[in-house]
Amino acid sequence: MSVLLRRENLTYRDQLVYTAGHAFVNCTFEGCTIVVREATGVLERCAFNSCVWHLDLMVTDRDHWAQLVNTIGPLLLGSLPTTASAPTARVDRA
Question: Tens of pLDDT along 30-49?
Fold first, then answer.
């Protein structure tokens, strides 16, 4: 069982933030680069404004991929800006 350092109600601006080993709760990230290495950190009820996501992940199988999509996917989608001119990506599923 890993121990996470709890960070609560803080604002991070223009910083490189590693999620591994940390539990961020009710934090705000503005203009940060969020580095995700595996799923060892926690991002709970956080806000992301103009952030860049750096995913340093190894996917070992489909179940692992599904777990990552279910945990990190909503955070990423909720933090990305929407633009009318952005192309739509097509994903073919086997």
Answer: 999 999 987 678 899 999 99
